[in-house]
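Input.
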Amino acid sequence: MTAPQRGQRPRRRPQTHKRNTVRNLWSPAPALDDPEPIKPAANPTALIDSLGSPPLRGHSATAEYHLAAVIERSVALASALAASAGLLAAPESE
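Output.
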């Protein structure tokens, strides 16, 4: 195949798949499996801590504090939501 001449459009290959495939939006979906119990993380800030201090000169301690606060609050809200749905895992007895 040669390159197209100046001012000419390249040829398109014919498409082999159907473009206008009709799908029924309201068709029944397969049943889902029961969800596994949700266990909150023991140390939710571990991933952010592993990345090191935020690169904000002079403000990294404040940024670390606020990032940790947001993460811990999100874990608390997610745990409350899981508990309200009956999906929170039972605490492990030692």
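The helical segments are 46-50, 60-84.
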